[in-house]
Design a protein that fits this description.
Blueprint lengths: L21 E3 L5 E2 L11 E7 L4 H17 L6 E8 L9 H10 L6 E4 L10 H6 L6 E5 L5 E5 L4 H9 L3
Amino acid sequence: MKNTNQTYGIEGQLAPELNVSRWVDQSGKETTPINLTDLDGKFKVIYCFQAWCPGCHSVGLPSLQKMVSALEGNDQVSFLAVQTVFEGAAKNTFERMVEIQKEYDLKIPFGQDEGDATSQNISYIMKNYRTGGTPWFILIDKNNQVIFNDFHLNTDKAIEYLKNLR
């Protein structure tokens, strides 16, 4: 699962902490921040999106739905969705993020990452993981190594890989 574009991604590196302070749980209720350490020993799939992103709605969110459904009950994998705001903050709001969680019936935690002045009001995940926009998938193994970080995820191959984790 190697990213051939050297400009983006941090495959093979230790995953930086998420630094996302605002989250909702799988039921859409605000909850405490989620950290990677909360998910130690699990494989992590992080889906990055923006509410106004057409590709997120036509490709990314349906891919995430398919993965979450295929791996339901698999306690080896944790899914997170994060709205990584880097433009259009007035449209890519926390409230819209919660609506999207409900609209796609995704019973996984969702986070809102707008960054702050120290990140030029750009998502921390975008900066720390060197993502190239949205939709974007980040796969982190059980040892917190980033093994995939890119736009183009082959959903079926990812599901097959994740189903075979031990």
